[in-house]
């Protein structure tokens, strides 16, 4: 699926241009200004995390996503090698829209939990692309939210609450790390707002949590959302649960914790109960901080594997326990994202209709010939 090589040419980031208003409920008519920000098709979309890189292809503006492939980042030295390993298609992709588990800060982007460095100029030259756009991975998750359906395959609602369709939405995702992003609807556009909310502090509230928190390994002297609500964090939490009980931890990998809980083991069960409670608590905080009446969406690799622990009432009770605003938060819905490639859905939606989104392209969009 790799693009054919093209002639080498200098490239530079493209400055963002202003977008006119468009309606959420009907397709906007692209203006000449918008067409300059459109991406030539076919478009390669990619969701690159700390462990896996997911790729797919969009043949034209109205086409479905096709050619899904997933590779382990550890198997390749860089994303160019990974893309070249996918094989060739005809016609070859002319653009790449990529979501990265890292802030995009320049011409070389080092991933947070992976040794890959993304070099968009080199991608244009070696892969024969015309355009490369790099965005944050949870920005892409946020872009997907208006396209996901409450049908049990894309989304399932956890607990009560009623969505206001054009209101602010928040996505929270435990995986290799803890991703957080907000999607705001303003001036007829969906505007994704990335951030580093996964690194906010997280502390105990219930009496039974205090001994566990006292035993949690500190990262830089802190206990943050990501330090327990992630793959490595789940193992860190299990060790603290065992230490609070005066027992050795029987687990050495995160998947052993979930397997232990499924088998009814006490330490595994308590770990996932605390995991679900903590995730609900921090999700409720994000709901309050942005007044996310459009819903809070739980994404990432871990939630789909522990669904029964998120839907047994523990998560939702912690989410709603926000006195003095319990009634307000109780009316905000929460959803589990079941779609296995939601970030690619968001990237495809943006590539097909950039005029519907208020995405800041400055310093993140490279074009052949500049």
TrEMBL record:
Stored Gene3D superfamilies: 3.30.420.40, 3.40.367.20
Extent of the signal sequence: none
UniProt xrefs under Pfam families: Glucokinase
Keyword Transferase: yes
Residue span of region Disordered: 1-34
Residue ranges with Basic and acidic residues bias: 1-10
Assigned GO CC terms: cytosol
Keywords: Kinase, Transferase
Alphabetized InterPro entries for the sequence: ATPase_NBD, Bacterial_glucokinase, Glucokinase
GO MF entry, a single one: ATP binding
Family: Belongs to the bacterial glucokinase family.
PANTHER family noted in UniProt: GLUCOKINASE
Protein name: Glucokinase
Organism of this sequence: Prosthecodimorpha staleyi
Lineage: Bacteria, Pseudomonadati, Pseudomonadota, Alphaproteobacteria, Hyphomicrobiales
């Amino acid at each position: 699926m790799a693009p054919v090589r093209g002639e080498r040419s200098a490239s530079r980031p493209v400055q963002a241009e202003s977008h006119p208003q468009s309606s959420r409920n009907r397709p906007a008519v692209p203006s000449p200004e918008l067409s300059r920000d459109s991406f030539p098709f076919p478009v390669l979309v990619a969701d690159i995390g700390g462990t896996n890189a997911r790729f797919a292809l969009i043949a034209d503006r109205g086409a479905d996503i096709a050619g899904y492939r997933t590779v382990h980042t550890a198997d390749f030295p860089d994303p160019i090698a990974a893309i070249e390993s996918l094989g060739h298609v005809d016609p070859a992709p002319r653009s790449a829209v990529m979501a990265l588990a890292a802030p995009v800060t320049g011409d070389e982007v080092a991933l947070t939990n992976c040794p890959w460095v993304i070099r968009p100029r080199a991608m244009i030259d070696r892969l024969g692309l015309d355009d490369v756009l790099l965005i944050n991975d949870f920005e892409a998750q946020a872009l997907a939210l208006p396209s996901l359906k409450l049908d049990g395959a894309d989304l399932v609602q956890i607990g009560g609450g009623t969505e206001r369709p054009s209101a602010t939405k928040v996505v929270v995702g435990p995986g290799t790390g803890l991703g957080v992003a907000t999607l705001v609807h303003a001036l007829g556009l969906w505007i994704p707002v990335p951030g580093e909310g996964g690194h906010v502090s997280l502390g105990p509230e219930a009496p039974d949590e205090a001994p566990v928190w006292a035993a949690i390994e500190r990262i830089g002297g802190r206990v943050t959302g990501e330090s327990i609500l992630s793959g490595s964090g789940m193992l860190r939490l299990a060790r603290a649960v065992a230490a609070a009980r005066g027992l050795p931890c029987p687990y050495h990998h995160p998947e052993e914790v979930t397997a232990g809980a499924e088998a009814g083991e006490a330490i595994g069960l308590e770990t996932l109960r605390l995991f679900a409670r903590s995730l609900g608590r921090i999700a409720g905080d994000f709901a309050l901080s942005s007044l996310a009446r459009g819903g809070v969406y739980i994404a990432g690799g871990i939630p789909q594997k522990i669904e029964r622990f998120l839907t047994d009432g523990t998560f939702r009770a912690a989410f709603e326990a926000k006195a003095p605003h319990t009634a307000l938060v109780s009316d905000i819905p929460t959803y589990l994202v079941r779609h296995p490639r939601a970030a690619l859905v968001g990237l495809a939606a943006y590539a097909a209709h950039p005029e519907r989104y208020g995405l800041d392209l400055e310093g993140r969009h490279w074009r052949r010939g500049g």
